[in-house]
Amino acid sequence: MNSNITAGVSWFFENISRKEAEKLLLAEENARGTFLVRPSEHNPNGYSLSVKDWEEYRGYHVKHYKIKPLDNGGFYISTNKTFDSLAELVNAYTKNAYGLCHVLSKPCKKPQPTMWDLAPTYRDKWEIPRDELHLIKRLGRGNFGEVYYGKWKNNIEVAVKTLREGTMSTSAFLQEAAIMKKFRHKRLVALYGVCSEQEPIYIVQEYMTKGSLLDFLRQDEGQGLEFEELVYIAFQVASGMEYLESKQLIHRDLAARNVLIGENNIAKICDFGLARVIEDNEYCPKQGSRFPVKWTAPEAIVYGRFSIKSDVWSYGILLMELFTYGQVPYPGMHGREVIEMVEKGYRMPKPTSHYLPDEIYQIMINCWDANPEKRPTFEFLTHYFEGFNVTSEVPYREVPD
């Protein structure tokens, strides 16, 4: 794709999916006609125009139009109107709708980019002096210690995890943190650095305003989420896991408690890789009753075989947590019973207390296939939830010639 076509243009969004485009455009501050242009998912040389619209019978929604390339390098939405460049096309439709749902009014505002480093000097050096951190309030207790809201240099908001003494060896943790720091994706919580020179070790990471997905789903705000918001969260988690899958990384502890929620229901995965270096028996299936049995694939419990496919099993459990607004999986069953029943072929039934389409329940069942190789990939799951049509709306509008 020719980046010169779109360099520095406010209405062009480089790395964005259809679902994310809809989410941004539907923000309350955007008027009808707010728009953006993004690369086409289907045509490597084409683009999509996404426009916020309003109709009396369905309120605000987003319409998508294919911008098709011409052989000579131009573009068109309908064949009777062709343009030499994307900029010319956009400019024309800001003056006249020419069959679109609405004239293009203003470009959609771009979201703040994720901040990956506290400062340029921390890109490679990430031991943070303890005295630069101010812990302001305790947010809760995680698997490995306390979690605090704080500020770095009294300026940047951060979340700080303190690791209980003896939870893990410092050297093993630092090796894992080096991996976590290296991999960056907008659906993974940014790791800023560590304080490892004395106990307790601190992990300093991006602060997400709404806390864990599990807590969020159980509170009033989360309880009020519409079904399509749940689908959007399912898509985001799958997208972050697809990135880990592409890098051949394993999470090992994927669950609603390890997904964090920010403004506009942005979801990010945290704590990937940490379960591998935990030294207490919380994560040892042989002794620890607190091992997260209900989220763990049978081959990982019985044989210790963790893989991206065991993460897919956990994702299926996370979907059940999500669509039941934070219910505990396998209600009324304890860990040992779950292991025995699952080995015999038992799977959680479709919930009757909450709305769940058969096709999404079938996806969960596929994630829980006894044969790890038969479980879907995260690439498939991302595309599935990205394309999941909550309404029977036609995916792209054709403009009459």
UniProtKB/TrEMBL annotation:
GO molecular function: ATP binding; non-membrane spanning protein tyrosine kinase activity
Residues the record lists as binding ATP: 161
Protein kinase domain boundaries: 133-386
Catalytic reactions on record: L-tyrosyl-[protein] + ATP = O-phospho-L-tyrosyl-[protein] + ADP + H(+)
Family, per entry: Belongs to the protein kinase superfamily. Tyr protein kinase family.
Keywords attached to this entry: ATP-binding, Kinase, Nucleotide-binding, Phosphoprotein, SH2 domain, SH3 domain, Transferase, Tyrosine-protein kinase
Listed SUPFAM superfamilies: Protein kinase-like (PK-like), SH2 domain
Descriptive protein name: Tyrosine-protein kinase
Recorded superkingdom: Eukaryota
EC number in record: 2.7.10.2
GO biological process: actin cytoskeleton organization; morphogenesis of an epithelium; open tracheal system development; salivary gland morphogenesis
